[in-house]
């Protein structure tokens, strides 16, 4: 799609340029990884000011915006600049762990045009939200503000995203290569009792595992995530963490070259 092509020509299933704006590096990387795996050209911004600079350089087709960025005034300037881009304005997908319409989800109390995605979410939730945003934008030429939450939080007994039957070999290799770092990040979060970082790490790992066809690891991440609450883990989380490490060790062993005996 060319730089000046109107966004209402973006069809469902068609990828474009996406800007992920979130001060949480784990969530930001997770969103970028999922979209990149489906053909999107992604850029990341940690602050609203950084996102404004990126908008000045190249206008994206989609902005994934965390509603609780540290600087609410800069966030509103970012929203207004997106809205001022006329026909080529980006679609906004607002993200928050709090229900829409609450002061916690939107501290500035100013309207956020676009669609809403409730955190935490898995890869399938993100892709469904993007698809819905594209459909609404293509139909109306703009994104209609939503007062409700079209993507509610998953029920505790919801199954993990179905693993891809024919995952890309490139993505599988990338998953195996990055798995040790992801597990180390999770171990550090658990050791320091940073439950928020642990949950975000599990969501990213769960989505990457599902896309890579690693159903056991995706299910381990889902079950362990349910045990990690704001105030701390519930009983039984240790056994689930051990199961995740064991399944991860199997994947890592399968990726290791076999040494020939002399």
Question: What would you note in describing this structure?
Answer:
The protein is α/β, with parallel strands linked by helices. It has 2 domains: 7-140, 3-Layer(aba) Sandwich (Rossmann fold), CATH 3.40.50; 169-255, Up-down Bundle (Four Helix Bundle (Hemerythrin (Met), subunit A)), CATH 1.20.120. Helix content is 48%, strand content 11%. The chain is built from 8 helices and 7 strands. The strands form 2 sheets. It has a 5-stranded parallel β-sheet. α3 (72-83) links the parallel β3 (62-66) and β4. It is globular, with a radius of gyration of 19 Å. The N and C termini lie far apart (56 Å). It comes from Elongatibacter sediminis. One of its GO terms (biological process) is phosphorelay signal transduction system. Residues 137-165 are annotated as: Disordered. This is Hpt domain-containing protein. GO terms for molecular function: protein kinase activity.
């Amino acid at each position: 799609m060319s730089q000046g092509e109107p966004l209402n020509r973006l069809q469902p299933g068609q990828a474009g340029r996406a800007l992920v704006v979130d001060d949480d590096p784990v969530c930001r990387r997770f969103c970028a990884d999922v979209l990149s795996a489906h053909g999107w050209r992604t850029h990341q911004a940690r602050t609203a000011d950084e996102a404004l600079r990126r908008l000045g350089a190249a206008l994206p087709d989609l902005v994934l915006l965390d509603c609780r960025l540290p600087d609410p005034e800069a966030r509103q300037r970012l929203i207004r600049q997106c809205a001022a881009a006329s026909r080529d304005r980006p679609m906004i997908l607002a993200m928050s762990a709090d229900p829409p319409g609450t002061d916690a989800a939107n501290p500035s109390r100013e309207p956020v045009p676009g669609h809403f995605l409730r955190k935490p979410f898995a890869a399938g939730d993100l892709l469904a939200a993007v698809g819905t945003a594209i459909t609404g934008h293509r139909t109306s030429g703009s994104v209609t503000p939503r007062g409700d939450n079209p993507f509610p939080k998953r029920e505790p007994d919801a199954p993990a995203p179905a693993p891809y039957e024919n995952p890309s070999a490139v993505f599988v290799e990338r998953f195996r290569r990055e798995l040790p770092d992801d597990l180390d990040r999770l171990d550090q979060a658990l050791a320091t009792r940073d439950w928020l970082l642990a949950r975000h790490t599990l969501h990213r790992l769960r989505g990457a595992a599902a896309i890579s066809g690693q159903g056991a690891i995706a299910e381990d991440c889902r079950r362990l995530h349910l045990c990690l609450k704001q105030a701390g883990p519930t009983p039984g989380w240790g056994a689930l963490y051990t199961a995740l490490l064991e399944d991860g060790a199997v994947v890592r062993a399968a990726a290791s070259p076999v040494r020939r005996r002399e």
